[in-house]
Design brief:
Blueprint: E1 3-5, E2 8-10, H1 15-26, E3 32-33, H2 34-42, H3 50-65, E4 78-81, E5 84-87, H4 95-111, H5 115-126, H6 139-142, H7 145-168, H8 175-183, H9 189-201, H10 205-223, H11 229-240, H12 304-312, E6 323-328, H13 337-348, E7 355-360, H14 373-383, H15 395-406, E8 411-418, H16 421-424, E9 435-440, H17 445-451, E10 453-458, H18 463-474, H19 476-481, H20 483-492, H21 497-509, H22 515-524, H23 541-550, H24 554-563, H25 573-580, H26 584-596, E11 601-604, E12 607-609, H27 612-625, H28 628-653, H29 677-699, H30 707-725, H31 728-745, H32 748-764, H33 768-784, H34 788-805, H35 808-825, H36 828-844, H37 848-865, H38 868-885, H39 888-905, H40 908-925, H41 928-944, H42 950-961
Parallel strand pairs: 6-9, 6-10, 7-8, 8-9
Antiparallel strand pairs: 1-2, 3-5, 4-5, 11-12
């Protein structure tokens, strides 16, 4: 610790004065309670005169900072307030605050897809660290957790900078900093793993290997354990990968983050250990092993030449192609691209033991609901175990993280139904060892040119393969008995597998029908799907679908047409019942009838999806054969089904949320019967993609249809679900859609709710400036409309934002204003939440009596209401206050109350938080084994959740095993 005044370095006083100054600097901008100062200076044995000594030290520091200051004068820099003392500082006067500002700016640059700028900012931030924080103060004071936390901030920033440098291909810029950090970090395995990776990436392979051996020896000698998964994976990378092929350091076509080639995997290397293949890279503690491939078609037949071609890409002596693309001629649909791709993927899946990823990009979905690459990559990141709050902002940053996670591993990635090359580029792996299969109606020539992709064009089935296709479905005897009819059916279907499947399904359902009669019916039917008529043959695919649909019962035929109005991507029987205006049991029977003739596919139990060609046909029939009034009424029933079911689900998971009020449920409307919050969460999770599609479709519906208002209400119903599940990126997109719709309607009430929701999710995403601006706008609108409840909720959100910024007094001000408003509105549940928020603020500020008073009042209300989650949060605040007061027995009672309630409500992340704090309290009392047990339980939960706090608990457990920790 060093101090300057007017360019002259000062001696910061005696040891205790230096310790006090270090504590105030570490907490700059926040009041430090006198009790905490006493604890830092004397530990558990302060003298009777401790408070008076603290006052003398404060006076000495004031005079050091402001020479000539009269005795007992308040001073400008070191001020009294909130039961303690506060040092006034900013980024220009304190390097710690400057460091944090630069780090925040660097993270923002990463989120915005500017890795070069982010790297410079990280370098500038780290350059401010010359020694460990608070060097030169007494050892007992230096052992306080506040200084350990500063060291942790530094090490985490070094790791972030190393991860970025590896992704950006500039590992040399962090090597010296990593080496320095490793010297003083003990056995921080994640840090040492990054050092090994950076050494490898900069061509220092032998040093990387020797570093690993030295660390492994220390772990065995000092702790009696083997290296963890991150170190083992870094060692494998160093042992098997020359620097020129390390992610981000290639010298070929790679010019920046994420632009490297995508290669077909070679055979597994002999040293590859399958039992150890699912280990972490720089970003996460461990990777799950996703197995997302759709099921293989048992009746797959034909395509022998194509299968030989693609299988040959993964074998032989020549270097395999880097990306494999399956494309169809002239945008032809129904030719079997997905079926072949899935069959091929299953054939070779065992070669990719780290996982198989799949996504349907819906590039040609007739509803226009094309899957955005950002949504797809976020889905992959979730499958790879990345917690929502660790997913960066912006597609470029998300894609870079995705490629980093796949680097050095063996993954198969199947990207189905891509629109064009740009649609898939962010989803391609960035290093060798992975296989990417892409299907599209278009020939992805740009992908072939830029990435060396192997293009495979699928044509219609040849006559012999089409005949084999029918034999597999109808039997050899029936096909052999009518060769002319079979030949005509094949010709009328133009050899398209989708059309042949429809015909075969009808023929199989009626084994007594002659195939010749079926051929005659098919010839005489004229479909209207003009966009898919083959110009080069006499076949009309629409005729096949028309013939299949006319064979349906009237109810199934009507449902088929109506399903063309559904925004997708799939539908359940209750939703189909609402769409058709029938009972759920009848809808289920009609869907089964459609599935039997292959007009719809039950891709998972109870959920039905169209091939996009059939969806287009159904939509065309709906617009040509159903009147506008019938279509409008069906869509209204469908959207209201989702709205009112989502509203009921939202009330089950968050009974006291402030959602936009809905009109009474329309008479006769069918909704899902949900009885508890478990069912509600399951329904919301399964329907999330559909709900997002409904929001988009409703928001863009014809003016006057009520769609825009419905979209706003639906988003409001989903806020608590999005927040509880951590689906913040999808929530942000939905909130922006709702805000746009509310602005078009010029409805201040809807605008206020949309702005508040947008501010909340931006706060979750760390967008502090945007969150604050939108919450202030929401507050202004709620004030204008006279909605005191809305105002109060906004104040609570503003209080949370202030706390995240470190401005605790401002947070307390907002929370107190919310409390005042809720006392006047008479709403008990939010009143209790506000009481807890104010109590927590007081506890953090060291005002423990005020904290306990507010929190105990909150608990009484929450118990009366049966608000278990709210009560748990308040018990946690009570326990924190007791812990800070040194009453560890009462703290444990409070934390255990919180833990029991969180377990009862099924909130594992909060359960883990309570366990962690129980461990902290046991550790403070010297019961290290009890602390270990609690922390280990917390770690198990956090690891299952892929939660970023898991590493903090690991660090506590490591420190517990370090010599001298028990002293």
């Amino acid at each position: 610790m060093r101090v300057w005044r007017a360019g002259v370095e000062l001696e910061p006083g005696r040891p205790q004065e230096r310790a006090l100054l270090a504590l105030l600097l570490a907490r700059a901008g926040q009041p430090v309670a006198v009790g905490e100062i006493v604890e830092v200076l004397w530990g558990g044995r302060p003298p009777d005169s401790a408070v008076n000594v603290v006052r003398r030290h404060v006076g000495a520091l004031r005079r050091l900072l402001e020479p000539g200051l009269p005795a007992r004068a308040a001073g400008r820099w070191l001020v009294r307030g909130a039961g303690g003392y506060q040092l006034v500082a900013d980024g220009d006067s304190l390097d710690l605050l400057r460091f944090r500002a630069l780090r925040a700016e660097a993270r923002r640059a990463v989120a915005e897809g500017a890795p070069g700028r982010a790297m410079e900012l990280f370098k500038a931030a780290l350059s401010l660290w010359k020694q460990p924080a608070a060097s030169g103060i007494p050892a007992r004071a230096r052992a306080h957790p506040v200084f350990d936390a500063l060291d942790g901030e530094y090490l985490e920033t070094v790791k972030e900078a190393a991860d970025l440098a590896l992704r950006a291909g500039v590992p040399e810029v962090v090597l010296s900093r990593l080496r320095e950090a490793a010297v003083g970090s003990g056995l921080d395995e994640p840090l040492l793993a990054r050092l090994i990776l950076v050494l490898t990436a900069t061509g220092r392979q032998s040093e990387a290997l020797s570093t690993y051996r030295a660390v492994a020896a220390r772990l065995a000698e000092e702790l009696g354990i083997d290296p963890g998964p991150e170190l083992r994976e870094a060692h494998r990378t160093a042992a098997r990968r020359p620097a020129s092929t390390f992610p981000g350091t290639g010298t070929g076509t790679r010019t920046g983050v994420g632009t490297g080639p995508v290669t077909v995997a070679e055979e597994p290397s002999p040293e590859h250990d399958p039992a150890d293949s699912h280990v972490t890279g720089p970003q996460v503690a461990a990777l799950p092993v996703p197995a997302q491939l759709p099921h293989d078609l048992a009746a797959f037949t034909g395509r022998r030449a194509e299968m030989d071609e693609v299988l040959a890409l993964l074998s032989g002596g020549t270097r395999p192609a880097e990306t494999v693309v399956i494309s169809a001629v002239g945008g032809m649909a129904g030719v079997g691209k997905t079926t072949l791709a899935v069959h091929w993927a299953h054939r070779v899946a065992e070669r990719y033991p780290d996982g198989q990823l799949y996504v349907n990009l819906r590039g040609f979905d007739p509803s226009g609901a094309v899957l955005n690459p950002a949504e797809a990559v976020r889905g992959f990141l979730a499958a790879l175990g990345v917690a929502p709050d660790r997913i960066p902002q912006g597609l470029d940053a998300q894609a870079a993280l995705y490629r980093s996670l796949l680097a050095g591993r063996r993954f198969l990635v199947l990207l189905d139904n891509a629109r064009d090359s740009d649609h898939v580029r962010p989803l391609l792996p960035g290093t060798p060892g992975c296989l990417a299969i892409v299907t599209s109606r278009n020939q992805l020539t740009a992908l072939v040119a830029a990435h060396g992709a192997h293009s495979l064009t699928l044509h219609s089935l040849a006559a012999d393969e089409a005949r084999e296709f029918l034999i597999r479905r109808l039997g050899a005897g029936r096909v052999a008995a009518e060769p002319e009819a079979v030949a005509e059916i094949i010709a009328l279907c133009a050899g398209l597998p989708l059309a042949l499947a429809c015909v075969a399904a009808r023929a199989a359902a009626h084994p007594h029908f002659a195939l010749a009669d079926i051929a005659v019916e098919l010839r005489q039917t004229h479909g209207s799907l003009d966009a898919f008529t083959r110009a080069d043959t006499s076949a009309d695919v629409g005729a096949v679908f028309s013939w299949s649909s006319r064979a349906l019962s009237p109810g199934a035929g009507r449902l088929f047409r109506l399903l063309g109005l559904h925004p997708g991507p799939d539908v359940t029987a209750p939703a189909a019942a609402a769409l058709a205006g029938v009972e759920t049991r009848q809808a289920r029977l009609l869907l089964s009838e459609l599935a039997r003739v292959h007009l719809i596919n039950e891709h998972v139990p109870g959920r039905y999806a169209f091939h996009d060609l059939l969806r287009a046909y159904a939509a065309e029939l709906a617009h040509t054969e159903l009147g506008e009034a019938e279509r409008r009424e069906a869509v209204r029933r469908l959207f209201e089904h989702y709205l009112y079911t989502a509203h009921a689900a939202g009330l089950l998971i968050a009974p006291y949320a402030d959602a936009i009020p809905l009109p009474p449920v329309p008479a006769g409307l069918l909704t899902e019967p949900l009885v508890d919050d478990g069912q509600a969460l399951s329904w919301l999770t399964a329907e999330q993609p559909v709900l997002l599609a409904v929001i988009d479709a409703a928001a863009t519906a014809d003016p006057g249809s009520g769609g825009e208002r419905l979209a706003c209400m639906l988003v409001s119903c989903l806020e608590r679900f999005f927040d509880r599940r951590g689906h913040w990126h999808g929530w942000a997109t939905a909130q922006r859609t709702a805000l746009d719709a509310a602005l078009r309607l010029a409805d201040p009430v809807l605008q206020a709710h949309a702005l508040r929701g947008l501010g909340r999710v931006e706060g979750r995403l760390g967008l502090r400036d945007e969150a604050g601006a939108h919450l202030e706008q929401a507050l202004e609108l709620f004030t204008k409309t006279g909605d005191d409840v809305g105002r109060a909720y906004v104040h609570l959100s503003l209080g949370w934002e202030a706390e995240q910024r470190g401005d605790l007094p401002d947070g307390l001000r907002h929370d107190q204003r919310a409390l005042e408003l809720f006392r006047t509105t008479g709403q008990k549940a939010p009143l209790a939440s506000a009481l807890n928020a104010v109590g927590w603020d007081h506890a953090v500020l060291g005002q423990y009596a005020e904290a306990l008073s507010h929190c105990l009042e909150a608990v009484a209300i929450q118990r009366e209401l049966g608000d278990h989650v709210g009560e748990a949060a308040t018990w946690d605040s009570i326990a924190y206050a007791h812990h800070r007061l040194g009453d560890h027995a009462q703290a444990l009672i409070g934390y255990r109350n919180a833990l029991a309630l969180y377990r009862q409500a099924g909130v594992p992340a909060e359960e883990a938080g309570s366990l962690a704090r129980i461990g902290d309290t046991h550790h403070a009392t010297g019961d290290h084994e009890a602390a270990r047990t609690a922390w280990q339980s917390a770690l198990t939960l956090l690891t299952d959740l892929a939660h970023p706090d898991a590493e903090r608990i690991r660090a506590r457990l490591r420190r517990l095993d370090e010599p001298g920790d028990h002293a």
